[in-house]
Amino acid sequence: MTTRGRIDKRQAILEGAFTVFAREGYAQACVQEIAREAGVAKPTVYNHMTDKATLFRNALEAAARTILEQRIAALEPLAAPTGDLRATLEEVAHVLLRLHTDGRSCALRRLLYSEVTHFPDILDIVKESGPDRLTQALADRLARLALAGRLRATDPDLAAEQFLALLLGPLEARTQLGTRQLEDSQLRVMAVAAVDAFVRAWGAR
Amino acid sequence: MTTRGRIDKRQAILEGAFTVFAREGYAQACVQEIAREAGVAKPTVYNHMTDKATLFRNALEAAARTILEQRIAALEPLAAPTGDLRATLEEVAHVLLRLHTDGRSCALRRLLYSEVTHFPDILDIVKESGPDRLTQALADRLARLALAGRLRATDPDLAAEQFLALLLGPLEARTQLGTRQLEDSQLRVMAVAAVDAFVRAWGAR
Amino acid sequence: MTTRGRIDKRQAILEGAFTVFAREGYAQACVQEIAREAGVAKPTVYNHMTDKATLFRNALEAAARTILEQRIAALEPLAAPTGDLRATLEEVAHVLLRLHTDGRSCALRRLLYSEVTHFPDILDIVKESGPDRLTQALADRLARLALAGRLRATDPDLAAEQFLALLLGPLEARTQLGTRQLEDSQLRVMAVAAVDAFVRAWGAR
Amino acid sequence: MTTRGRIDKRQAILEGAFTVFAREGYAQACVQEIAREAGVAKPTVYNHMTDKATLFRNALEAAARTILEQRIAALEPLAAPTGDLRATLEEVAHVLLRLHTDGRSCALRRLLYSEVTHFPDILDIVKESGPDRLTQALADRLARLALAGRLRATDPDLAAEQFLALLLGPLEARTQLGTRQLEDSQLRVMAVAAVDAFVRAWGAR
DNA sequence: GATGAATGAGAGTTCATTCAT
DNA sequence: TATGAATGAACTCTCATTCAT
């Protein structure tokens, strides 16, 4: 029970930190504000995390883990693609787009990009809870589909990479670097376009 | 001559600023260091630019302009695609990859991403000297090719968008968010793979 | 037993406190570290001592008392100076030097000097357990010797003061303000030199 | 002229620093207050001195130099001791006592003692501008007097050391570790007593 | 126009001290 | 009684920005 409060507070700090870092960036974010956001006093933050830097890393890691889990879960329909493959792909694509355009998701990308030179070790986050993992998971699914003869059976890793590229690449411009929200209908259109191209390029001949 | 010196100094300041901002990020960069990098005294920086913020915007704008020009120029071969279309596309793709993985280019992306929330007006840079312009220019070229019957004649804007997505999307993972340099041979492989998929998806039937 | 444990803990706290204060000085010493040194938790320190300041005073007092006792004991041989007076003085002088150059002794001096302006009441420690008391005790012994005709019978207080001055004064320079340990042989030489001058100045004509 | 202001300010900072350090001790002194004392803004202090530590060292050094000069000057009468040697010694002794009991002098001693463990390099100050130098200078004078047959011609270094010990040793107790001012008449008495013993111990037989 | 010097404002971090258990 | 956790108050140091020359 004693421990409970502790864990809650740690959680609150990590979430507050991510929120503030996301809003302000690493350098502009001030620990004072993070503490306020988490509803604790400044030294409490330091009792849990040694450093502003450590706080940053941990907050990023926690956020990345959560986000990755959602994305992996979004691939589920591909595990047993009943019926129309194209429809399944579109469904998955649509959900991925929605997840990818979510505020926290965009913020995480921004933070990773902007601080990767100051915190080279956040690359581990990218490797372990980032896009690499998603590509792998997708490649696994596509490999099954290839075996089942429903996709060109050459290189599932490349296929996964290109599926995600076709899907997410256009986002950057459309969302203005992640600052603008898109309508769900727009996302649907983008999903269809990406899947369309993907099927032309990778569908079973 | 006086005027000349002034212009030179302005140029030096803008370049020094971009260098330092690229290395440190907006907030961590300090005007002192920018001045040192540019070889002038700190107040001289303020004589040319009112603000650290203004300095940032101008430095970004100048860098973006230069970078965009190079990219647009790289599309040149597509204007008159002598002979093999696939080969031309691969050549263009290869050059684009090289430009896109260049240090300054990556730094610019990082800066845009990290500061877009604090400087919403840098979106103008993206629109006027960024990827949007490149996509447009490429779409123009592809439209010509479509008219010439060498590409599927449906939607050149979408084609351009997907060409760039297939080409540049995989870069993020391969360069570790732009922190790792790639061998030219690797770039060649990536160019071939992207063009291969593009041709399958968009080649004339 | 409980009481015993309490007393032990109090003792441990006082000793830990002196150790840390000696190493760090009053202001730099942090209660956390004192608690660690004493093997207790931080609030336990506050259960025994109201204040960091109180803790400081008590630790100093305890240390001073111990140190004074040793010094007074060192004067013992002068109570019944069998045989050669000069030899007895040299012996006493030697032991005093050794005590005076001891680490804890030097630390105590340092602490008294540095904090006397912030804790005027530690002057009581000096008066009750410090050099003043030693001078008095020595004066008592010298008075007896004067009565016995073995010393100039004028002013035993002055004699005691000058004996200690001749003995300890040179220490400051030789030990580099108490930071360097001296060889026992060096101490012997210093004792002899001090006694030599003392006897010339205060020996019975 | 530009430089003039700079030098003045540096001087003011060093003096303010010594004042505050003397009053508060190293750790308790805060740069803010030093700046106020010096009549400048806090960052100005940092423009002149890199560090609080550096500031401390420099302030100590400057104060030590000034103080040493005064003490050395006080030995002047011994250079050509016209007439009564005892009277000359008493005069010198008296002045030395006055210098030694001066507020700044006491403060310097306190600071040296209290911080020597944190700043081992301030031992250089002691060597170059502290008591060691004074002892040397005095030894030089006494050697001359020994040559002139007016002092026991054995060991002028030891003689100087013991003269100062007899003179300054009793100060510690009398001034309560340097916190109490003494009347000039008391100083006179102490000077006479010290010289008296010194002459008995070191006077030409 | 260019610069050395100065400053107001603010950030990270530490610490003595107090609750609640 | 002893302790893990939390906090208010300071303190060092940095930086964008402005004068005065």
Which properties best describe this structure?
Arc Repressor Mutant, subunit A, homotetramer, DNA-binding, 205 residues, 10 helices
Task: Provide an overview of this structure.
4 copies of one chain form a homotetramer. Chain A is an all-alpha fold and 205 residues long. Chain A folds into 2 domains: 49 residues, Arc Repressor Mutant, subunit A, CATH 1.10.10.60; 147 residues, Tetracycline Repressor, domain 2 (Orthogonal Bundle). In chain A, α1 crosses α6, α4 runs antiparallel to α5 and α4 packs across α6. At the A-B interface, α6, α8, α9 and α10 of A face α6, α8, α9 and α10 of B. The structure holds a DNA duplex (21 and 21 nucleotides).
Main pleated sheet of chain A? none
Overall average residue pLDDT of chain A: 92
| Rg calc of chain A | 19 Å
Query: Structural class, from secondary structure content of chain A?
Result: mainly alpha
Q: Would you identify the CATH H-level superfamily of the largest domain in chain A?
A: Tetracycline Repressor, domain 2
CATH class annotation of the largest domain in chain A? Mainly Alpha
Quote the beta fraction of chain A. under 5%
Measured as a percent range, the helix fraction of chain A is over 70%
- Overall shape of chain A: elongated
At the fold tier of CATH, the topology name of the largest domain in chain A is Tetracycline Repressor, domain 2
